[in-house]
Amino acid sequence: MGILNQIIWLMMKQTDIIIIGAGPSGMMSAIYAKRANKEVILLDKASPGGSLHSTFQVDNYLGFGKVSAEELIQKMVDHLRDLEIEDTKGFVNQITKEKDYFIVATEKETYFAKAVIVASGTSPKPLKVPNEFELLSKGISYCAVCDGLFFENEDVVVIGGGDSALEESIYLSHICKSVTIIHELKEFTASKGLIKRIQEHDKISVKLSTKVIEFIGNEELDAITLLDCFNNITYDFKAKGAFIYIGNQADTTYINNLLITDESGFIPVNQFMETKVKGLFACGDVTKKDFRYIVTAISDGAIAALSAVKYLDDSRNLE
């Protein structure tokens, strides 16, 4: 190693494992790695909790039954603090690998690690229709829990047909005057139990086979232009709020240079949460998988940490 590289090495914050993302999978990775006596840095651009922050209530988490997302996040964070694990705010710009170590660059710091676990999760997928971004936070939102209270006693719409869309519609029904669910397909993709609750709810109405064409408004949302796909009729629908739940996209642009993602940005991994780059692991919603739930994220996180620990121990034995 040259003198310049040695200086750079010494200036970096060094650790055994860097975990990117402090959602359930990232927090679980940190806990398992710490309990294996590894030095851990847990990085996230926001506060711990990940996509749980956009959920109101969790109904099927083992040992809790029905619990608010806020309470569940606090329990997870308390677990981190009990093990003296602190999360560090940092927006990761890029990860590079140099021989047998990784360089993780954020907007403020540069870190060195022998192994990296990517647990950065997903972000809401936009509709990409006219005025969507112009009216963001002016009537349009991707998080009912975050912004629902701004629409007390107002008429709002929820766009989407999966579990998240229907769950948040029920949450909004306790706040808003009315909730209309707009879904492009002729049937919901949500679970049957949720669909039944929506059908029986007196404050929630449904528009299936209906596509959003445009959001209308200047300083705030006034209406939404809709297309009735069955009758091929376009019309404007009055609403003060629109909550978009059409799925999520992987937050992985910072590792595009490593060429480990699929065409949609998700990371393929094996059963050990290993990517095709040695020493680089991934877990949770950011991975290519069929089911994205809290329990699967936590399972992934534990496996990723155990695999990273084994990788470090095996590497040390070869030295």
Describe the secondary structure blueprint for this structure.
Blueprint: H1 3-11, E1 13-20, H2 24-35, E2 40-44, E3 57-61, E4 65-68, H3 69-82, E5 87-89, E6 92-98, E7 101-106, E8 110-118, E9 122-124, E10 140-141, H4 144-147, E11 155-159, H5 163-173, E12 178-182, H6 192-199, E13 204-207, E14 210-217, E15 221-228, E16 233-238, E17 241-244, E18 248-250, E19 280-282, H7 294-318
Parallel strand pairs: 1-2, 1-8, 2-5, 8-19, 10-17, 11-12, 11-17, 12-13
Antiparallel strand pairs: 3-4, 6-7, 7-8, 9-18, 14-15, 15-16
Helix pairs in contact: 2-3, 2-7, 5-6
Describe the protein's architecture and organization:
This protein is 26% helix and 31% strand. It has seven helices and 19 strands. It has 319 residues and is α/β, with parallel strands linked by helices. The strands form five sheets. Strands 1, 2, 5, 6, 7, 8 and 19 form a seven-stranded mixed β-sheet that branches. A five-stranded parallel β-sheet has the order 10-17-11-12-13, covered by helices on one side. A three-stranded antiparallel β-sheet has the order 14-15-16, with no helix packed on it.
